[in-house]
Amino acid sequence: MTALRVLIVDDEPLARLRLRGLVDAIQAPRCEVVAEAATGAQALAWLRDQPCDIVLLDVQMPGVDGLQMADALAQRLQPGTGPLVIFVTAHAMHALRAFELEALDYLTKPVRRERLQAALARAAQRLSERAAVLGPQTAAEAPASREYADFINITDRGRLLRVPLAEV
Q1: Distances from the Cα of 13 to the Cαs of 19, 38, 39, 44, 101, in angstroms?
Q2: First and final C-alpha spacing in the chain
Q3: How far apart are CA 118 and CA 44, in angstroms?
Q4: What does the alpha-carbon distance between residue 72 and residue 3 come to, in Å, rounded to a whole number?
Q5: Are 153 and 75 in contact (CB under 8 A)?
Q6: Which residues of the chain have pLDDT under 50?
Q7: DSSP character string of 14-79
Q8: Between the CA atoms of 14, 18, 23 and 27, what dihedral angle is there, to the nearest 10 degrees?
Q9: What is the rounded CA–CA span in Å between residue 30 and residue 10?
Q10: DSSP state at residue 153
């Protein structure tokens, strides 16, 4: 089995370093951190051109937060395609919204290695099931775009804002 490609998105450099260390220490499933991003906008821009299997995503970040980023991914991708999202955050209060956005898991900081490993194992299982349906190509490489635009839709106090990624 090839390594699962992981994108880490967190505005705190030490949190990204800690997550990278945990992912690197996990033997099964085998994972490779392919990129890190400090903002949701950076991550969305990276994902436009690069496939990955899993996004480890913080909730509270400046600009595009983790919930907005997950919502933007859901808007841009066909159901059952694209990376799986595992939220990694210091606050449990956003868990319900995260699961409404079809997050695979919601881990609270400080993240324990065993919990992360269990979440990654669930991700590997889900990706394996998805690949069985899609055929030999990996789920992350499947045609997924709904027309990957250079903007993000953000709902703010009941208003829908359409913001160019370059401005975030």
Answers
A1: 10, 8, 11, 18, 25
A2: 37
A3: 26
A4: 26
A5: yes
A6: 136, 138-149, 156
A7: HHHHHHHHHHHH-TTTTEEEEEEESSHHHHHHHHHH---SEEEE-S--SSS-HHHHHHHHHHHB-T
A8: 150
A9: 22
A10: E
Rounded Cα distance between 5 and 53, Å, is: 5
Amino acid at 145: S
Tell the burial category of 116 from Cβ atoms under 10 Å away from its Cβ (0-12, 13-18, 19+): buried
Contact 123, 84 (CB under 8 A): yes
| Position 49, amino acid | D
Per residue in 120-132, pLDDT tens? 999 999 998 888 8
Nearest by Cα to 151 from 59, 83, 68 = 68
Residues 34/47, Cβ–Cβ less than 8 Å: no
Q: Which CATH superfamily is domain 4-167 in?
A: Response regulator (3.40.50.2300)
pLDDT digits (tens, 9 = 90+) for 25-51: 999 899 999 999 999 999 999 998 888
Show me where the domains of the chain are located. 4-167
